[in-house]
Every structure is written in structure tokens, then in C-alpha cells.
Write a structure and sequence with these properties.
The chain is mostly helical and 257 residues long. The chain is built from 11 helices and no strands. Helix 2 (36-50) crosses helix 5, helix 6 (104-121) packs parallel to helix 8 (157-188) and helix 8 (157-188) runs antiparallel to helix 11 (232-256).
Length: 257
């Protein structure tokens, strides 16, 4: 819980005060029928059904059947609402299913896949710009779970932080690319398999063994036609990060053993 400053406030941004329940509800006038959770819930539902472009203070007010000005009793700007929406969207991290005694690698893998699942299921979150480090309740819960996965590894706290930032970047980048591709395919009306085949044909027309020998070798391989797993690229990237971390964990373990 945040300490109060000399003026009786927390000194935190308004969005964080609201997220943590540190701001009192509006006190003037009759007791309002609105609540902050209702506003956030309506905004999230709108984003999920129509995308972030549809989310505005006016549109959220319309969905709730109230005036736009009434929302400003709770949130001063849509940017504050975005912070609350993002926290609601990511939710709390699931409890680890790896079981007691699971190692750091298994726990980090589960943590990464859980984040990816949340972002893929709520891709509108990816359209909200990142303007500050994680500090809302659910964001901190995810951060804590990631750091806790490396307990007992001997890694420095700064190294643990760098690790979850690196993995989090992979998760967000992969989820963003997947969401963008899905949006493009849906707008084109072409099946994913057809879109991939069309891309391969395009590359074969544009790239030749003399001008693009490496691309040609790629096209002649099974990279696009092999029976790879749907999440191969994500799994490959994550495993390479964890492979790179493993020697450092072993080194730290030897130093503390």
C-alpha cells in the first residue's frame, strides 16, 4: 500500500490510484449509479467486440446509457481508462501447474505461454501503447510470478528483471505479429493456408538464386510446407532465450554452492 505524501495524497498517477483503490469515489451530489468497475467493464467489452479504435469516452458512456461528462467524475481522460482496461484484460496470472519442485525453466516457460494466451485472447490490449513500467495490480502480479520462477537460481535480482523483460518482449512481439496477420487475413477473406501459399509464390517471383540465394534456399526447404507446430516460432525463440540463460544459472549455482 502506498504511503501518503504531505498533502494527504499518494503522489501516484491518478490511473494507479484508481487501479489500487486509493482514490475515493466522487463525493459531491447524489450517490452515483456508476462505478469505476462498471466503466472499465463496458470499455473492455467494447474493445473486445469492436477493437480499441471504437473506445472513446463518448462511446463508453453511450454503452452505459449515461452522459459523457458523468464518466469524468471517475476518469479524467481516456488514457487513464486505457491503463485500467489493460490491467483488467491481463487479469491475474494462473497458478503454476508445473507442480512442486518444478525448475526455473519449466516455470518460466509456463509463465511465458500463459502471457501469450492472454494477449492472443485479448489482442486489443496490444493496441494500447506502453507508457510506463508495470505498476497496476495485475501487472505486478505477473511480474512477481515471473521473478519468483527464478527463485533459488542464484541469479542477481537485476538479472532476473532483465530475463522477464526479454521474455515479455518476445511474448508481446510474437502476439502482435500474430494478431496483425490474423486481422489482415480476416480482412482479405483468404484462408490462412491460401495466404501462405500466395506469399511463397510471391517470393518465388521476386527472389532468385542469383539475387537472393539465402531466400531461395529457404523456399527450397520445408520451412513453409513442413508439418511444423503452430507455435514453433514462439517456442523456438523462447527456448533459445532459456538456453542462453542456462549456463549463467549453472555458473551462479556453482558460485553459491
Amino acid at each position: 500500500m502506498a504511503d501518503e505524501d504531505e498533502d494527504g495524497g499518494t503522489g501516484l498517477p491518478a490511473s494507479l490510484e484508481m487501479a489500487w483503490g486509493l482514490r475515493e469515489r466522487p463525493g459531491k451530489g447524489p450517490r452515483p449509479t456508476l462505478t469505476l468497475p462498471k466503466i472499465v467493464e463496458a470499455a473492455v467489452a467494447l474493445a473486445a467486440s469492436e477493437g480499441m479504435d471504437a473506445v472513446s469516452m463518448g462511446r463508453v458512456a453511450k454503452e452505459l446509457g449515461v452522459s459523457t461528462m458523468s464518466l469524468y467524475r471517475y476518469v479524467a481522460a481516456k488514457e487513464e481508462l486505457y491503463v485500467l482496461m489493460s490491467d483488467a484484460g491481463v487479469g491475474t496470472p494462473p497458478e503454476p501447474s508445473a507442480g512442486e519442485g518444478a525448475g526455473w525453466r519449466e516455470l518460466l516457460t509456463e509463465w511465458a505461454y500463459a502471457q501469450r494466451a492472454v494477449l492472443m485472447a485479448n489482442s486489443w490490449i496490444l493496441r494500447i501503447p506502453i507508457t510506463a513500467p508495470p505498476a497496476t495490480p495485475n501487472q505486478l502480479a505477473w511480474m512477481d510470478r515471473g521473478l519468483a520462477a527464478m527463485a533459488g537460481t542464484g541469479l542477481k535480482e537485476s538479472e532476473k528483471l532483465s530475463t522477464i523483460i526479454l521474455i515479455g518482449g518476445l511474448v508481446r512481439n510474437e502476439a502482435t505479429m500474430a494478431a496483425d496477420m490474423i486481422d489482415a487475413i480476416m480482412k482479405s477473406g483468404v484462408a490462412p493456408e491460401q495466404a501462405l501459399a500466395q506469399y511463397v509464390r510471391t517470393l518465388r517471383l521476386l527472389a532468385g538464386p542469383d539475387s537472393h540465394p539465402a531466400v531461395t534456399r529457404l523456399l527450397d526447404s520445408d520451412a513453409f510446407t513442413g508439418a511444423g507446430e503452430p507455435d514453433f516460432q514462439f517456442r523456438f525463440g523462447l527456448n533459445r532465450i532459456l538456453d542462453g540463460l542456462a549456463p549463467l544459472v549453472a555458473e551462479r549455482g556453482e558460485a553459491t554452492g
